[in-house]
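Protocol step 4 of 6: structure prediction from sequence.
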Amino acid sequence: MVDVTNVREWLIDGGRSSPVAANMIEELCKRLIDAGIPLYRVAFYIRTLHPDIFGRNFIWKLGEPIQIGTADYSITETPQFHASPISIVAREGREIRARVGDPDSARWPIFEDLRAEGVTDYIALPIRFIDGSAHTTSWTTRQEGGFTDEQIDALRSIIAPLSRLVEVIGLRRVATTLLDTYVGNRAGERILGGQIRRGHTENMNAAIWLSDLRGFTALSDRLPSETVVDILNNYFDHQVTAIKEHGGEVLKYMGDGLLAVFPIDEYVGDSDKVCAHALEAARQTRTSVEAMQYRIGDTIERFRFGVALHVGPILYGNIGGGSRLDFTCIGPAVNLAARLEKLTGRLRRTIVASEGFAGICSGGWNDLGEFPIAGFAKAQRVYGLFDEEAQAAA
């Protein structure tokens, strides 16, 4: 006898004992087996809202750790995808049932693999979200003769509460992904944690990165806007990769400009290491941007950028008007970094640093002199790298 009453109640209650997706699936399969359904392999295929990822899959198999994977958007262009029962279930919102070995199952390539594993029965059931979109689950057994009608009906009976739980978990993940994508991981965690009131800010010390692309105005004037966007995306890819690899967080894009911070833990006292990471990210970006090439007709465009590095206290949090807020950082330290960045072109340098940054991240710096800085009462001493002297003299 199959009784999934407790499983349905557990799902309706939100699967509170296993709020993480992978844990929830493992717990669900265990409960279904205990309820009398001899599962062997269960898979969830959930589309998501992500700039690079089309969907995520979770594959549970009896006696093995759950496998989690992702698929990018190119998967939708493959013949395997269109020949899969998973895509048909998601596209048409209907279930597909086939006993492995039956003539009808031969049209699904996946059944060759299932038969080799001793699977006897397969059913794919749609998970419907409240927006009407259909996602997919598949359930298999190695029970002789396949699933019984009672077991199939039991699986169908849990799909409605399972759909709601999967949707809630998925929406929370989408919210986290979107926040990470648009405001960064550190800011996203704070916003999702409830820091959404205007004026909700905190003081922090950080190494500050401000950069822009040389000649962007002229570039925008002579090239189609679609080409400019493609160039910018490629250019930002080089910076973001280096910044994230070295512990920084991108806060804002401003046309061709980029603002990033490398937080300093005041209790650890790691300002020298943080500044060293920021400088290494700048060096890495310098190399990759200099290697950028973009063919436009018979011409190959090459690119250069400038970045200013500073270190100091910033105010980090929600700033804006009415209900339209921005999670960003402000303060004299940010203003100084922005002013220093404007000097990179004048000094024919890619990387410049403030006296404060060069003092902490010692070694390899050349004193370029003092310069009056708009908005600051005192002239500021600026430093450049020794390995850029040849460029400056060229």
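Step 5 (inspection) to follow. Residues 215 and 304 are 8 Å apart (CA to CA).
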